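Morning - iron/sulfur cluster inputs below, output right after.
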Amino acid sequence: MELSRRRFLEYCSIAAGTIGLTPGDLAGLNEALANPAAPEVIWLHGSSCTGCSVSFLNRISDTMGEPASVVEVLTQAINLTHHATVMTFAGESCGAVLEHAVKRGNYILVLEGGVPTAFGGFCCIAYSYKGEEVTYAAAVSELVQHASHVVCAGTCSSFGGIPAAGINPSNVVSVQAHAGVPTINISGCPANPNWVVWAIVQLLLGNPVELDADNRPVALYRIERGQNPWEKIHQSCPHKSAYNSGSLAADFNDTVNKCLVDLGCRGQWTKAKCDRCWNGIEGEGHWCIGVNSPCHGCTEPTFPGLQSFFRPYTSGS
Ligand code: SF4
Ligand code: SF4
C-alpha cells in the first residue's frame, strides 16, 4: 500500500507541470491518499474501443518506468476497485464489487464509452450478476445515483463520439443524455491521460472544478498564453502566421511550416490544451499539429461528424 501510494505521488510530481497540479495540490494529495475514507474509483466501460484506458495505463506505465506496477498503482494508490481491463476479479465477483460500491456510495464513477439505448440496451452488456446480464445503460442509470462525481473519460461517454456517428443503429448517446446527471467531461479520442488523472486528483482533494458550457474543465480546455485566454486551438497554433499569410499545405508531402486547413484541420472549432503534452512526451511540438497532422477536433461534441478528416472542414460548433 505504502509503495503504491508513493509511486502514484511520484508520478503526479514528475508530471505535475503538464497535469496542471500545484505544489499545494501535491501536498494535499499525500494526505488524501493516506485517508482510509478516501473515495473509491469505479471505472466502467460501455460502447468504446478501450483506447482511453490503454492511453491512461500506458502513460502511467511510461512515466514510472515499471509496467508491471501499473495495476498495483491503480488498484491500491487511488483505490480503483472496478476496472474491467485491469481488475483481478472476474465473472460474478465483478457484480459483487459494484453491488458493495452502491451500498457504500460516495465513489468517483469514471465512465468510458457511450451508452447504447436501442434493443433495451442489450447491444452492450457491462457485466453479469446473479444469473442476469446487466446492460451498460442499466448499470450507468444505477451507479450515477450513488456516485459523488461522474467523470466521462473520452469523447464517447462525453458526447457519443464515434459509436454515435452516422446511422448509429444501437442509438448510442452520451452519459449525460442517458442519465441526466451532471458530468465532468474529459473529452478526447482518446482522452488525454494526464487530464483524467488531473480530474481524479481534483476530486480526491475536494477542489471545485470549473466547467465550460460542454461540462469540460476550463483548466484543461482553455489555452492560456500570458494574459491571453484563447478559446480555440487555432488562435495559438504555431502555424497561425502561415494561415494568416495564406501559406497553406496542399498535400501531406509539403506540410512543414504550413497551415493544414486545406488538409482538414478543425483547429478553428476545437477547444483543448493539446499543445503541451501528448503521447507521454512533454513540451511543445508533440501533438497532432506539432507533427504536421491536422487537428480532427476529437475533443468536440461535433466529433467525428460525417465529413472526411482530410478535406477542408466546412462547419463546426
Ligand atoms: S494548422 Fe489548423 S489550427 Fe493551425 S493555423 Fe492552420 S487551421 Fe489553424
Ligand atoms: S490536436 Fe485536435 S485531434 Fe489532436 S488530440 Fe487535440 S483536439 Fe484531438
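Note: Confidence is low (pLDDT under 50) at residues 64-70.

O.
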